[in-house]
Amino acid sequence: MGVRSAKDGIREARRKAGMTQEQLSEGICSPQALSRIETGVRAVSPATFQALMEQAGVSRSRFPVFAGRKAFDCYCALQYAAFYLNNWQLSDAWEELKKAENAEWANDRLSYQKWLFLRCRLQFFSCCGSHEENRDALLAALRFTRPTMDLSDFQELVLTQTELEILTLLAEEALYLDDIGTCSILCGQLECHLSQATFSITESQSLAAHLAIVKTKLLLAQKSYAEARTTADAVRSDIAHQGGPAFLFPLAFLSGLCSYYLQDTEQADALIKAAFYSAHGFGSCYATVCRSFLARRTAYTMTDYMQSLPDIPLVSYPAPVPLSISAFSEKPAQDSPYTLGDIIRDLRTQQGVSQQILCQGLCSASKLSKIENSTLLPDIALSEALLQRLGISERIFEFWGDEKDARFHELKHKLLNTPDLLDKRAFYINEIDQVLQKEDMLYRQRYLTVLASLASSPAEEIQLLTEALHMTLPDFRIQDVCRYRLSWEEISILNHLAYAYCNTQDSYFSSLYFSQLLEYWNMLKPSPVFQSNTFSHTLSQHCSSLYVQKQFSAILRLYQNCDKRLLRSHLSTYGDFLFYLSQALGECGDYDGARLQAVYGCNLEFLAGFPNNSRILEKALKKDFDLCLCY
Fold first, then answer.
1. What rounded mean pLDDT belongs to the chain?
2. Taking the model in full, what pTM does it have?
3. Domains by residue range for the chain, with CATH
4. 40, 243, 344, 520: least buried by Cβ within 10 Å?
5. DSSP string, 348-370
């Protein structure tokens, strides 16, 4: 979920509630203080934030708080299920959804609502369920929080992310039930709502991407092909680097269909193949759906290679039978709130980690004790680092930060999404430098890491990365990595250090760093979201460094022994891995394998916004092995 702006959240909640600053601030603070909070001049404490939001009718905390440990475990299962669905890993999503069901949704109707939506999304992705049943289940899910909601007018409501997701999937299901009118009304309402809503940048992109898919399908149904293609392409380019397959595959395929109907043959071919081969490389049944649609509904000419690949089987899952709202009418047991401190303490204890190891370089052990006892709330940067060192991604939680927190996370997201645009990266790095203050050690560590990416030589890059690492781990030894607990930033630094070394005389350090990082991953067994944003990059960069060192057999062993789900958890890094894997297969004489992985890799790179990589790979395979990628 990430970091949202607290001031924007308060202002939006007040306006949607139809309250003046005088009304909202009554009994909490002065109207002048609220005005300064809403404009970002004054910071807002967690207690004041919660009181203001509750007075506006929106119960929210600045830091994650749960009703109990069971509620926390259920929440994590739902977040991981959503993650797996976004990566088209349906069987893994199903396992997480069963965990939430077995926990009886922690007797919480909001958890059940989220679960029911995700079950409907699983049904939709599997292409085996009934659209009528799915629509009815979605309406039942919406009634848990909006029993009398008018689907034609909800602009003035403060809607949760789950409610917006339900409404978007309802619009999509309406299309499949030939109810174009309802779909059009919902799309119009959702478009207006999303333009005004306050979400983190990743949440906003996900909601906008799903809505773009639905709107593109609607325009296709209305035969407005040019407008449909524009709609799909606008969002597709925005999410190319970081977007999940759940959005990128359909957006590419739909844009390709629009091009096909517009008789733009070259563009249609590129996009349709990118969607099909990328999905097939992911082991996604969407590849089967795409090929079936092309055969049944179009005259598109599929190549022999496209038709030769086996189907990815469609797997059916039991349709959800919605519970009645009365099943959650009783108040849950009045457990003590399960706070961020409780989460950190319990995870640390379960993993057998001492306070000294966990907080090393971040804070004192006495401060960590206060955090774990819930007598002290850490700042957002420290909260994130502590969770990450325990193998939990902070991205599954919702934090409401001050102006600096929100701006830093926005800039960090933009930097991660513009890896190949040096001018923009330099601009964002300068922006971060302007935001930071001397005491912002953890944010400054990120600043140094990104600054290293613009270094003029491997030696300069290594120097900057080492400086960044020593900000939190001054005596770090890679040989002892399993004795530490590492944050996302620290793992990112080590990944970049390992790769930087492969271009120096000390290239043996590269393999040492990467092998130790993989040992750390085997020891920690982090959450899937954390793996996606850390160790998928480790595998990709390790593969690249081995190729530079001409260790082709080692690349094949790495691929054979790694967790394929981990590789496929991040689209662009998977494409990078296959870029070098295909060439290593060619060097080892497996030309059929080289061709297949190259086809996957080329189309993933194209979809991720790196078409030049595709052309480079095609030329290299032709030159080195006389392999033509005719697909």
1. 88
2. 0.88
3. 1-64 (1.10.260.40), 69-308 (1.25.40.10), 458-625 (1.25.40)
4. 40
5. HHHTT--HHHHHTTTS-HHHHHH
